[in-house]
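Whiteboard transcription, Tuesday session. T.W. wrote the structure tokens on the left side:
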């Protein structure tokens, strides 16, 4: 039988789970805090339900909350993360481990509350950040803090599914929002200037010209571009399939992975001019392979190192940085071409669902949130066009009437 004791604004539920081999009584406890908007009657009803659920779980041997967070998290990496999650996601979580374990790794899973996590968030907001030379460069970014809480929350979600605990304490934690900053995007004039400059690039840089031309016209992520293979193209129908990415970690080096989300697996229609360029590039690569002979390592990739192996993820960045210095173009990071592509679609009246599909976003809200400014600008243009239609016609009509009066005189 569960015993319930009120402790301030929360309730402690304690259950006896029998006796251990030494004859000592084994007890498990949990803390439940009601929503502040609940009535007394609702609190009692939910409290009794929580007590019954907790007692049943204890009797079935499903509650093992005496486990420390770090011990369980290390098990989670082996049991779940290494099987289900992407390499880059696991790498990101490993980066957060030291701070997380220092703060809550020693605590029992059932003793970690929302308040515990919130205090950790506050601690992170004041933590100093240093560069590679050890110089202080400010405090942790909101995105970095979010990554830490994401790691903790994902571990607790798994514990809930394993019926070790009844709820995730990260659910109601408040995370600082990033400061809104204006996204750097190339203008249409700058993109046209870049494409014109590409026409004068040397043959040795042909692969980079194609890389950035594809980035402009397709909006693919860097890893998706580097993962493209010749078999991904349907030349007869001018179609390109996106089905893999090329990634890198210190531990694994360059490796092939699936796209970022399920919706990132997509097929895009390419303009005829781009298809022509791609076919010329394929001919160029085939000639290059023949000249290189046995030194060529076949991977079917569009973008390769000198010997056919997949191109390094930093290579396009290094080329473009030098290209901008050499030509005087404004330098903006590679991801800006994805933003340009999205903005161009939106400002030309493409609906949000189509933009979402082209970019490979899982959720339309992601597209709306990232490109809110572009949608607002497109909406403003639409409203202006209505006004132009109405007032422009009125002006024309008045002008016509005056001409008619003049002619009648």
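and on the right, the sequence the group agreed on:
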């Amino acid at each position: 039988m569960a015993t319930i004791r009120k402790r301030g604004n929360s309730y402690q539920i304690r259950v006896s789970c029998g006796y251990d081999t030494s004859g000592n009584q084994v007890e498990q406890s949990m803390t439940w805090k009601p929503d502040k908007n609940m009535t007394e009657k609702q609190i009692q009803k939910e409290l009794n339900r929580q007590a019954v659920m907790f007692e049943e779980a204890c009797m079935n041997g499903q509650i093992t909350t005496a486990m420390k967070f770090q011990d369980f998290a290390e098990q989670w990496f082996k049991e779940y993360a290494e099987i289900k999650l992407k390499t880059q996601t696991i790498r990101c979580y490993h980066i957060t481990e030291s701070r997380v374990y220092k703060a809550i790794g020693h605590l029992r899973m059932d003793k970690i509350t929302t308040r515990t996590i919130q205090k950790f968030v506050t601690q992170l907001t004041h933590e100093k950040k240093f560069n590679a030379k050890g110089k202080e460069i400010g405090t942790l970014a909101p995105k970095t803090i979010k990554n830490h809480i994401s790691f903790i929350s994902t571990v607790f979600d798994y514990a809930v599914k394993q019926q070790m605990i009844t709820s995730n304490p990260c659910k109601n934690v408040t995370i600082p929002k990033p400061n809104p900053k204006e996204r750097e995007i190339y203008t249409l004039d700058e993109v046209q200037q870049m494409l014109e400059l590409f026409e004068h690039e040397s043959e040795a840089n042909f692969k980079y010209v194609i890389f950035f031309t594809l980035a402009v016209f397709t909006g693919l992520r860097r890893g998706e571009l580097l993962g493209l293979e010749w078999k991904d193209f349907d030349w007869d129908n001018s179609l390109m399939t996106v089905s893999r990415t090329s990634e890198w970690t210190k531990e694994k080096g360059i490796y092939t992975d699936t796209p970022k989300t399920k919706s990132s697996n997509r097929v895009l229609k390419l303009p005829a001019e781009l298809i022509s360029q791609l076919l010329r590039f394929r001919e160029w690569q085939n000639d290059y392979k023949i000249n290189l002979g046995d030194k060529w390592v076949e991977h079917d990739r569009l973008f390769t190192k000198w010997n056919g192996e997949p191109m390094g993820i930093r290579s396009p960045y290094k080329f473009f940085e030098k290209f901008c210095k050499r030509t005087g173009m404004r330098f903006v990071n590679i991801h800006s071409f994805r933003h340009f592509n999205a903005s161009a679609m939106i400002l030309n009246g493409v609906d949000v669902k189509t933009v979402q599909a082209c970019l490979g976003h899982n959720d339309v809200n992601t597209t709306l949130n990232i490109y809110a400014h572009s949608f607002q600008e497109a909406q403003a243009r639409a409203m202006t066009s209505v006004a132009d239609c109405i007032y422009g016609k009125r002006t024309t009509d008045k002008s016509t009437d005056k001409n008619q009066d003049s002619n009648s005189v």
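Someone added at the bottom: Strands lie at 3-7, 10-19, 25-32, 128-130, 136-139, 233-234, 239-242, 245-249, 253-257, 266-269.
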